[in-house]
UniProtKB/TrEMBL annotation:
This is DUF4157 domain-containing protein. Keywords: Hydrolase. One of its GO terms (molecular function) is amidase activity. It comes from Nocardia colli. It comes from the Bacteria.
């Protein structure tokens, strides 16, 4: 970053009150009294109050996802929330504003992980990128910079690589309070600024109610790949389903379809195209089948990159192999988060008509064009993998191969009898490695962490507390 956050602090005594709102609906772009981009920070005491304190870095998962899509380093970004930030944003008549690498949010506006919250954050990060590119004397029209930031936020919500083309000096850039929040949906529908996101409808947990045949049991005992994938990634997929509503079977099924039964190898996981300028830590070049009809466009987009390579296009073939850039993730949690944001875009709105039916959800994703290839084949392959994983989940459950927390939940689903609670408590040493060797004072915080894991997995707080009582 060229402008560290602590270079922007301005003592309150050097500032004057923000100008009054003009009565005109069409003010000149460079009028200093216009709320929005280009406000002179030396005239605004509210800015110093909003930046009072060091701020908070972006959550690692959110930061990784944003950096992957923007192709920009956000390690210096600091967010400011709470009463002082809220008062500052209100004084600026803004939902949020950016100054260099500092982001100040009105109460209820900073909600990363929700469609409207991510849209606002992407808008403000676009201003961070703009202000990192220019010399202090650079001037830019308000409308151009705001249009650029709006477009970047829309790119984020639609699942595309985020494009930021503008540049400006380090100035206060406000998202006006009259600007409706967007939810990233197909029509850019306004979203509530203060209401917390409701728990989304939930698909059934994989494997529940599935009856395995002798042939199924023999198959999974012999071929472990599906069971291994489910056991390794199911907790993260189920946690994501609880938060976002994306069915866990869809998450796991697309991971396997896009990256095979050992998805960690590529570090791409979901086959989402990346920005080739982002660098090797954010992008991995992989060989993939693409429609022959797209060959010319792909050459125009990527042909000047040395990593780009094309296979032979055989006569009559519908697809050919080509090496293209895909988003690369530090871990599977970042990949799952980003995948859910992609599926939350308006492009896949029809999938959300059936969020409790994983197969219908998956078919809708395929029909919307998640893959550039044959959509019918992609749909059939995805559903087949999901059906295999559903049976693998049942096998893992029946053979006690699940995460200990998931085993606890299965025990408590049967009954809430004293025997069931005792059976669940016997799994604590498996859920907390080294638990029995811990001194008494060190066990309590570990039990509280386990209690929170049970609650996050959908268990009532009183049930989780009873399982984890010292």
């Amino acid at each position: 970053m060229t402008t560290p956050a602590n270079q922007h602090r301005v003592p309150t005594r050097a500032l004057r009150q923000p100008p009054a709102r003009s009565e005109s609906a069409h003010e000149p772009e460079h009028n200093s009294s216009t709320p929005g981009f280009g406000i002179d920070l030396t005239t605004v005491p509210a800015v110093a109050n909003g930046l009072d304190g060091p701020g908070t870095p972006l959550d690692p998962h959110i930061r990784a996802a944003m950096e992957s899509r923007f192709g920009h380093d956000f390690s210096d970004v600091r967010t400011h929330t709470g009463p002082a930030a809220d008062t500052s944003a209100r004084a600026m008549r803004a939902r949020a504003y950016t100054l260099g690498t500092d982001l100040v949010f009105r109460e209820g506006t900073y909600r990363p992980g929700t469609p409207s919250g991510d849209h606002v954050l992407a808008h403000e990060l676009a201003h961070v990128v703009q202000q990192s590119r220019a010399l202090p004397c650079t001037s830019a029209p308000v409308s151009a910079m705001e249009h650029d930031a709006h477009r970047a936020a829309d790119d984020w919500s639609s699942g595309d690589v985020v494009r930021v083309t503008g540049q400006s000096s380090v100035q206060v850039a406000c998202l006006d309070e009259d600007e409706p929040l967007r939810d990233g949906g197909a029509n850019g529908a306004p979203a509530s600024a203060t209401a917390g996101p409701p728990r989304p409808p939930q698909a059934p947990e994989p494997g529940v109610g599935v009856v395995l045949t002798d042939e199924d049991n023999q198959k999974f005992a012999r071929e472990r790949k599906a069971v291994d994938v489910y056991v390794k990634y199911s907790e993260q997929a189920l946690d994501n389903q609880s938060r976002t509503g994306v069915p866990a079977l869809v998450t796991l099924g697309q991971m396997v379809l896009e990256s095979g039964w050992t998805p960690d190898k590529s570090a791409s996981y979901f086959g989402v195209k990346g920005d080739p300028k982002a660098g090797p830590d954010k992008v991995v070049w992989l060989s993939t089948p693409e429609p022959v009809t797209a060959a010319r466009k792909l050459r125009e987009m990527y042909g000047h990159y040395p990593e780009f390579a094309e296979g032979e296009i055989k006569p009559g073939a519908e697809t050919y192999q080509v090496t293209l850039p895909f988003r690369r993730y530090a871990n599977v949690a970042d990949a799952i988060d980003d995948h859910s944001r992609v599926l939350g875009s308006g492009k896949y709105s029809k999938a959300w008509q059936n969020p409790t039916d994983p197969e219908q959800f998956g078919r809708a994703i395929a029909a919307a064009g998640y893959s550039a290839g044959d959509r019918t084949k992609y749909s059939a392959d995805l559903v087949s993998i999901m059906q295999t994983l559903n049976k693998a989940a049942a096998y893992a459950r029946q053979n006690k191969k699940l995460d200990p927390v998931r085993q606890m939940i299965d025990v408590l689903k049967v009954s809430k009898s004293p025997e069931s609670y005792e059976q669940a408590r016997r799994l604590i040493p498996q859920a907390i490695p080294g638990f029995e060797a811990l001194p008494a004072q060190s066990r309590l915080p570990k039990l509280r962490e386990l209690e929170n894991r049970l609650i996050n997995a959908g268990q009532p707080p009183d049930v989780a507390a009873k399982v984890c009582q010292p």
